[in-house]
Amino acid sequence: MSRPLLGPAEIVVDLAAIRGNARLLRETAGVPLVAVVKADGYGHGAVESARAAKQGGADWIGTATVEEALALRAAGIDGPLLCWIAGPDSDFAAAADAGIDVSAHGLGHLETMAAAFAGRAEPARVQLKLDTGMSRAGSPRAEWPALFGRAAEGERAGLWRITGIWTHPACADDPAHPANDRQEQAFRDALALADEHGLRPELRHFANSATALLRPSARFDAVRCGIALYGLDPAPGEATDVGLVPAMTVHAPLLMVKDLAPGDGVSYGHHWVADHATTVGLVPVGYGDGIPRHASRPGAADSAATVSIDGKRRPIRGSVCMDQFVVDLGGDRPEVGSDVLVLGPSSAGGPTAQDWAEACGTINYEIVTRIGGRMSRTYLNAEPADGEDGA
Ligand SMILES: *Cc1c(COP(=O)(O)O)cnc(C)c1O
């Protein structure tokens, strides 16, 4: 069915899917859910995603940066809120005023916070982020005794309350990888050591989406789920199917249809040349809107990404441009203005984020998170926020 579209390309986000996914994740994990809405909710909108996740039963909201967390508060997202990226100049006092949990990723970082929190009437809420083997953010193992000692001292001095201790898995999408066992054991060692230092955090957490679904032993007191909240599979090929529903659909109007003769080259560099007569269509979105240029690589036409028009998959031909790309219509002539389903759930026959990821040699996370640019975003199935129901 074609859906005439005169406006620009559009991202449609189904908030009922996010609510339902939050409910499923909460039930499956059986522990509090930290709904991760960093990077503008993986391209779905941070505020709307946070609100829907909470309506679906999420207990906490998680962001990467302090600034993202402050923006959510300013937009009226209340309740437990955790962030884990902060530079030395981040506004820790504003975060504490807003009741946001900040994460210290090392002893030096904790000292920076100590300076920022000195003289406050109320203790700030601080979580300790540990590196148990990812070698990314987080306090390294050799530092843990000093970190826990300083954390306990600050707690006694009323500077902060250590509300959480946590870490992040490196190989969660590969459950058989030995790093998973090693990291979980290192985290257990850390918790025992923290306990010896007198720390009694409310929340000990380890899991992202893949761990939450695939490794029950590592759910601890909460799971931090991002990609699964948006209905995408955190570990393609592993047994993660609990009925998650993808929330994002991307539509664009078909702008033009034209004939190609054998030998006609398409787009910059003529990386695709028609070897027979065909028809092609123009889709007005490109890498400026987050459509990866890798979707159609020179010499890899057979693995090019596809879009769906009138229920038929149509491969991208030639390079994706900044504002547009060309698809092969194989001699058909869909009406100008026909709906091009650029991305959508498999239930709608669309190329999924996973299909795009495979065509581009990346992960579904990157596909949805980059989508945006000049596209508008429309929300379906919003439920009024508390106090907004107009009754
Ligand atoms: C992004 C992120 C998550 C969420 O990961 P998913 O794989 O999307 O569930 C959880 N924790 C931290 C620290 C993150 O940076």
TrEMBL record:
Please list the residue ranges annotated as the Alanine racemase C-terminal domain: 247-380
Entry's Pfam families? Ala_racemase_C (PF00842), Ala_racemase_N (PF01168)
In the record, which positions carry N6-(pyridoxal phosphate)lysine?
Answer: 38
Recorded GO molecular functions are: alanine racemase activity
InterPro entries hit by this protein: Ala_racemase, Ala_racemase/Decarboxylase_C, Ala_racemase_C, Ala_racemase_N, Ala_racemase_pyridoxalP-BS, PLP-binding_barrel
Where, in this chain's numbering, is substrate bound? 136, 322
| Gene3D superfamilies reported in the protein's UniProt record | Alanine racemase, Lyase, Ornithine Decarboxylase, Chain A, domain 1
**Superkingdom of origin organism:** Bacteria
Q: What is its EC number?
A: 5.1.1.1
According to its UniProt record, which cofactors does this protein need?
pyridoxal 5'-phosphate
Which reaction is the catalytic activity of this chain?
Answer: L-alanine = D-alanine
Query: Could you confirm whether the keyword Isomerase appears in this record?
Result: yes
Keyword set includes Isomerase: yes
> What SMART domains has UniProt attached to this entry?
Ala_racemase_C (SM01005)
| Enzyme class, spelled out | isomerase
Pathway entry:
Amino-acid biosynthesis; D-alanine biosynthesis; D-alanine from L-alanine: step 1/1
Which UniProt keywords are listed? Isomerase, Pyridoxal phosphate
Active site (catalytic residues): 38, 268
Q: Function of this protein? A: Catalyzes the interconversion of L-alanine and D-alanine. May also act on other amino acids.
What protein family does this chain belong to? Belongs to the alanine racemase family.
Name of this protein: Alanine racemase
Specify the species: Nocardioides ginsengisoli
Its ancestry begins with: Bacteria, Bacillati, Actinomycetota, Actinomycetes, Propionibacteriales
